[in-house]
Amino acid sequence: MWASLLPVGRDPESGGYRRFVWTAPELECRAWFLDEARRRDLEVERDRNGNLFAWWYPEGIDPSVKGVLTGSHLDSVPGGGAFDGPLGVVSAFAAIDLLRERRVRPDRPIGIGAFAEEEGARFGVACLGSRLLSGAIDPGRARGLTDGDGRSFAEVAAENGIDPDTIGPDEELLGRIGCYVELHVEQGRALTDPVGVASSIVPHGRWRFDFAGEGNHAGTTRLADRRDPMLAFARMVLAAREAAERNETVATVGKVHVTPGGVNAIPSSVAAWLDSRGPVDDAVRRTVAEIHEAARAGAGAHGVTVDLAEESYTEVVDFNLDLRDRVVKALGGVPVLPTGAGHDAGILASRMPTAMVFVRNPTGVSHAPSEFAEEDDCLAGVEALATVLNDLACG
Ligand code: GLV
Ligand code: MN
Ligand code: MN
């Protein structure tokens, strides 16, 4: 399974993945998912928000009994690694295979979810599929989100067989899920055992800064006559690092659009995206406020304007304690750790008990081509997930 998914959307030069929702490589991943599901006689379902599910209804089971959901996502950040998302989906299929090999007969349905646009790499809002499903984003706002080519979520969803008028919370589907356990590659170096369990997800969000100045000639415009938005932007980037240090948070500017982007032209505008996260809401809010202040000062000094818009914000998520303890117990006592990464399990936590199982990442690198997990650790992850599913779905 892993080998068949590995070439999909991989850049042959960098080894990084680009699997943006509803682009060709991501559609190939979806086809792969449906194929793996059918190969196992799982019942496939695509919900009205574009999320995919594969359900195992053991014979004779009452289908109205709430199921145990596992899975993750198949999309990637630009230039991402192979493991972030797909490891959870592949491990879910492999865990079901193990349970069947062992002749386990669950008393509850077991489902595998592949959530749409988890990274928010195409439409800007992370975990868009699970946000829509759980009611964490207004469907009208989601419809209007645009990708880098200016195409709306509504338009692209419609092209892919989703009726944009029916996106949004799906109580019927949520009512069929008793709990969600997502397996994921660990994205830092905190986990030194093969497998661990998540305690919480730190508060995190995304903000867009728009700097507008005056486009002009790079050779003929005197320094005193310029209104260069790049200079205010540069101040903002440096301020992000300083504010993060002061507030013991992290702040990253990883995406920027310069218009028009000519070597010999002073830009007319710069759009920049800030990602900030930290242990507590206040510290993250303060970080962003300080960066905004610096951006405003930079804008004032250079005769440009700056607008700030919050694109998403997720407060701290403390995973359900009972479920977490049960998972840790089933695994015979494994480390419990917080994470600075966002996940669908964090979004769905508002609607059902959720938990996460992490697989060790020896270098801690993630969202980059060198993201890695040892095969033995991945197999330990599959074994752990099978154990957890066995515990939650039987008896
Ligand atoms: C998703 O991986 C995120 O934490 O941004
Ligand atoms: Mn990710
Ligand atoms: Mn992920």
TrEMBL record:
Residues bound to allantoate: 206, 264, 277
Residue ranges crossing the lipid bilayer per the database entry: none
Cofactor: Zn(2+)
Cofactor note: Binds 2 Zn(2+) ions per subunit.
Binding site for Zn(2+) 2: 84, 119, 367
A Pfam family recorded for this sequence: Peptidase_M20
Keywords of the record: Hydrolase, Metal-binding, Zinc
Coiled coil segments of this chain: none
Protein name per the record: Allantoate amidohydrolase
